[in-house]
Amino acid sequence: MAMNHPYTPPLVVGNHNGGSRILGAETDLKHIELECINCRTRIPMDKNIAGCPACGENILEARYELNKINVGEWLEQLRRRPQTLWRYREVLPLYDTDNIVTLGEGGTPLIKSHALAANLGLKNLYLKDERQSPTASFKDRQASVAISVLREMGVDSVVVASTGNVAISYAAYGARAGIKLLAFFPSLTPSDKMREAALYGAEVIKVTGTYDQTKELAGKFAKRQGVFLDRGIKSVAAIEAMKTLAYEIAEELGYLFFDSERWLSPDWFIQGVSGGMGPIGVGKGFREMYDFGLIDKMPALGLVQSSGCAPMVEAFNRHQRIATPIEDPTTVIATLATGNPGRAYELLYDYVHEYGGHFVSASDEEAFQAIRILARNDGVSVEPAVGVTFAGLFKMVQQGIIKPDDVVVVNCSGHSLPVETHILDSVWQRSLDLSQRSSTPELPKEGLLAALDRMDTQLRRVAVIEDNVDSARLIQRLLQARGAYDVQLAHNGEDGLRLIRAMEPDIVITDLMMPDVDGFAVIDAMKADPALATIPIVVVTAKELTARERAQLKDQVDLLLQKGSSIDEELVENLVHKFE
Ligand SMILES: *Cc1c(COP(=O)(O)O)cnc(C)c1O
Ligand SMILES: [Zn+2]
Q1: What residue owns the CA closest to ligand 1's atom 7?
Q2: How confident is the model at residue 341 (pLDDT cuts 50, 70, 90)?
Q3: 33-36: strand order across its sheet
Q4: What is the DSSP string of 251-265?
Q5: Among candidates 361, 187, 351, 195, which has minimal Cα distance to 279?
Q6: Whose CA is nearest to atom 15 of ligand 1?
Q7: DSSP class of residue 396?
Q8: Residue 359 vs residues 302, 321, 343, 364, 437: alpha-carbon distances, Å
């Protein structure tokens, strides 16, 4: 298959079900053009689709003859159509509805948040639940549109580079369309995701390198093999597909708030961002609806990146319209590991400038914490990329950027797969595995993550003996936020010894000053018991120690940490560090 597959649109467009007609228009033939977002050159969709012929830009936007759509008639039709994204087919880049490849994507619920919203002080927080997509991420929208278009073009094999979800979706839809998929993954991709793509019959190629390097390699491969590389069409399909999110949100909010024909744009659309096609598409969707007169304002965009790979946020904070690529992303969240956003950032920057919004980053730890908070509050379990989204939401609310009365829609873009449901157990172990592969690109190597990497992986079960309940809980929370720690608490020396005997911890963290059986007594008892004598002990104390006490402890404990008036994050970091 040639790279620039010659493509002629069907002469007679199927209109057996009215789907390909432009409603209320004179002509039956839908006319689609592609516009370069850089130089604005327009090409018909029946020509070269690999990129802009004038400047080579990869991001192209579909343009329709929107003025030929009779909006009233269209709304009438919409009511009778099934809840997939193809109900908006008049504004999707396909000529013949016979070519639609569908698994029922789109039409996902807009769930109102109660508990989390209340905790955040938000009155109108909605979760756009894209987890309920056929392969559990919003990439199914993109795959359905892309594979349908490729089928219409007669393409029979495709190369994609993916951090997981795109390849899984393309593989599933490709299987239905009989289109062979060659999927290139960076090594950071969880292997379960690669395996799922393989299950659908994709050929899986794992690349030792970053996502950006993987994209480059996939491009070279496609060129050499003459296999169609989904690049130009990828951006067209992605933007057009993702904009259906906007249509669904506005339509549903309209029903919820007005109970009438009117549609409603939220004040905020929030998403975890990697390549940026989601929010770019959503922005285009709202723009089209605005032009149709269906909504009367454009939403602000809340764009959240993982702080280990946040080129957009960094550029935004420097008030720059061009992002500096991140060469070595240091996030374990592969889904958000686009180091070089290219022109996508400029589009989003311009959008935020014109209609409002904000860029913010969140760390992997904050993301995992947010996943637990969301799950416990609202019963919604999301993948790490969405944890980043919510961690960013929390920050924007705390900073007063998002107001209590704002109507906020968060894209819950993907479900946690089985491998990732063990947010506490497997994610950190997975990063250890990867870092041991000698030729793998550098993973996080600084601070706490590095310390955890180097730490004895057996050090997992922790007994904390601390009479101050808040301090004990804080240690527990801080440790658990850092990975696979099983942390059990006791609030006096006697319970502490019972706990140690029962759980046989890998390490004991104890206070000294406790009523009745104090820390000194606990340590003495442990040292006197051969079964417990070798367990490492960390003492965390606010007590001013005498010289004698100090000397005694020196022989018995592995680490002595002096706390101030309270235990804080720094202290725990210190603690973890000491076990390198
Ligand atoms: C791809 C993906 C993102 C990032 O989407 P972009 O709009 O391309 O930046 C976020 N979440 C999930 C689950 C994804 O699969
Ligand atoms: Zn161009």
Answers
A1: 278
A2: very high
A3: 42-44, 33-36, 60-63
A4: HHHHHHHHSSS----
A5: 351
A6: 165
A7: H
A8: 6, 12, 16, 17, 34
Q: Measure 166 CA to ligand 1 centroid, in angstroms.
A: 9
Backbone angles phi, psi at 183, to 5 degrees: -110, 120
Contact (CB, 8 A) for 498 and 525:
no
Dist CA 369 CA 253 (whole Å) = 29
Q: Whose CA is nearest to atom 10 of ligand 1?
A: 272
∠ CA 319-323-326 to the nearest 5 degrees? 130
Partnered with residue 268 across adjacent β-strands are 300, 408
For strands 461-465 and 507-510, give the pairing.
parallel
pTM for this entry: 0.71
* Bridging pattern class, strands 42-44 and 33-36: antiparallel
Q: Domains of the chain, with CATH numbers?
A: 111-132+247-422 (3.40.50.1100), 444-579 (3.40.50.2300)
Q: Is the pLDDT of residue 551 over 90?
A: no
In this structure, which ligand is nearest to the CA of 232?
2
According to the model, what pLDDT value does residue 29 have?
63
Mapping DSSP onto H, E and C, the string for 445-512 reads CCHHHHHHHHCCCCCCEEEEECCCHHHHHHHHHHHHCCCCCEEEEECCHHHHHHHHHHHCCCEEEECC
> Which residue, 358, 372, 371, is CA-closest to 403?
358
CB under 6 Å to ligand 1: residues? 137, 139, 165, 272-279, 335, 383, 385, 413-414
pLDDT band at 261 (very low <50, low <70, confident <90, very high): confident
Residue 435 has a pLDDT of 31
Quote the mean pLDDT of the chain.
84
Q: Given this model, what pLDDT does residue 50 score?
A: 73
CB atoms within 10 A of CB 243: 29
Rg (CA), the chain: 27
Q: Identify the residue with better confidence: 548 or 253.
A: 253
Q: What per-residue confidence (pLDDT) applies to 63? A: 95
Cα–Cα distance between 30 and 163 in angstroms, integer? 34
Calculate how far, in angstroms, residue 234's C-alpha sits from the geometric centre of ligand 1. Answer: 14
Q: Which residue has the higher pLDDT, 230 or 146?
A: 146
For residue 47, how far is its CA from the centre of ligand 2 (angstroms)?
14
pLDDT of residue 475 exceeding 60, the answer is yes
Q: Are 222 and 205 in contact (CB under 8 A)?
A: no
How big, in percent rounded to 5, are the helix, strand and coil portions of the chain?
Answer: 45, 15, 40
pLDDT tier at 52, thresholds 50, 70, 90:
confident
CA–centroid distance, 348 to ligand 1, in Å, is 15
Which pLDDT does position 570 carry in this prediction? Answer: 63
pLDDT in tens, 406-431: 999 999 999 976 434 434 333 332 22
